[in-house]
Amino acid sequence: MGWRTIGNIYGEYTIIPGLKLRSSWSIDNGSEYENNYSNTLISAGISSLGSAASYENKNIVLTNEQVLNYIKTFGPNGKHNINALIGNTINTVLTQNTSATGTGFAANSLKSVAVAATRSGSSSRAESKLLSFFSKVSYTYDNKYTIDGSIRADGSSKFGVNKQWGYFPSGGFAWRAGQESFIKNLNVFDELKLRASIGLSGNQNGIGSYAAQGLWSSGANYLEQPGTAPSQLANPDLTWETTRQIDFGAEFGFLKNRLNIVVDYYNKYTYDLLLNVPVPYRSGFASYLQNFGAVRNKGVDLAINSTNVQTASFKWTTNFNISFNANKIEKLASDIALGASGRNISILRQGYAVNSFQLYKQLYVDSQTGNAVYEDVNKDGQITSADRQIVGNALPKFSGGFNNNLVYKNFDLGFSFIFQQGNKIMNMNDFFMVHGNLQANIGFLPRQLERWQKPGDQTDIPRLTADSRNPAQNGGNANNYGGNVANLSSRYLEDGSFIRLKTLTLGYNLPAAFLQKVKLNKIRLYAQATNLLTFTKYGGLDPEVSSQSSNQNTAGYDWATVPQPKTFQIGANVTF
After folding, report:
1. Sign, Cα dihedral of 514, 516, 518, 522
2. Cβ-based neighbour number of residue 322 at 10 Å
3. Over the stretch 225-274, which tens digit does the pLDDT of each residue have?
4. Quick count: other Cβ atoms within 10 Å of Cβ 395?
5. Element (H or E) spanning 428, and its range?
6. What are the beta bridge partners of residue 72?
7. What is the model's pTM?
8. Residue 160 near residue 236 (C-beta atoms within 8 A)
């Protein structure tokens, strides 16, 4: 349970015509708490004679901002327009976490940590501050040519004392070519706009409030005497992760603007990545948070909006968008293996995309023996950890949406599809439930019955086995190894492409004559369904899933995630 309070107050003062000062203060205050108890009737509480836990998390964000804005139009026919601003922001984030646990209860009716035989607790508090100064100037001439420039200066308490400040300039140019006479004379475009921009931006997300500081932790006890030990190396030069982005775009309008097309190309190069870089163990640490590494994203976004039919009583509009993105790690100190439960099947590797999967590649199941046959990458005749390879990633090659709205008199019908193609999903449901290991204390899915059972069977599910080791543990021969629960292979990596009917809505606006009688402006009755249809080859419950999306480098996992439900609702919108 929890609660959240969001508040904002501001004041504005016009100094002279066109020059305005605005000051605002806001607060975002949230608190969550949880109490749970595992009694002695379930496995989680049997051995401990009952187990209880209590957690409370608090988060407060305070923001103060001042902006001085100047807008001025001047010259013959108002051809010159200037829009300029300057300001600063002060942001403070305070988090506090408290937890208490207890085991050993006299009765299951006693559930509070306070009455447990053995109790323990912990607490933490962190505070970070961000101070920003920014300015922007935009100049437009004759409503055709626009040039703008901006700069930000951001200082964060999260970074090292030597490099807490980052400076991020940007600039852009736009040309409404459709307003030029030589374009108008073509009688082709109703609107034609070209634009380009380049700029830098900074990022501090993904690191703790004291990421750059040398930290010590208690708990290094010796001979029952309390002790402390260093837990984090200091990095006084830790600084902002920076992205340089270049954009080129064009907007087209045809057929009296009934057809509009927007195309954008972008190239984002992010460098000085905030990563834990491996260091020699003689330092006493395995890794060290540094600015090291670079990744590039480049692609094209396309949006098409059209009015297909428009009469006095009927209108049909369509919106279509699609995005193509190519991701590549261009600089990395060394491979970084990631993944839940220590399995390290996600990896960051130079030359490949983030969210890549490193697995044993299953070639086929031997129809005579029922053993899985894996690719022997280094050709040494054995399947070991050296034979794991990147076999896909969680990023789609393209994604988008397709929306339609039809209006006939007082009726309206709308439906929207979303889609993505080319991404991979690690189906951990199959890993645990179609594993084929007799010793695993886990249930089975009906698809397990499709496994190899006798010579001649053609299937991709190996024979049932009591061997819980993986190839690397027993040096299994490349052509003689049965499938098991410990062996995470490409067999569990599936295509996550899908097309989904996301929403379907039918509405009716009550006639104006009736609204006049009841003295209301508008009443719309509607029925709506969501997630109605999904077309996919993915074998899990829902292809639109990424249960570890909180970690941006380990996306694309399905840990028996609850699928998005199909919903049906009816309602009314009333405007007074």
Report:
1. positive
2. 17
3. 889 889 899 999 999 999 999 999 999 999 999 999 999 999 999 999 99
4. 20
5. helix 428-433
6. 82
7. 0.86
8. yes
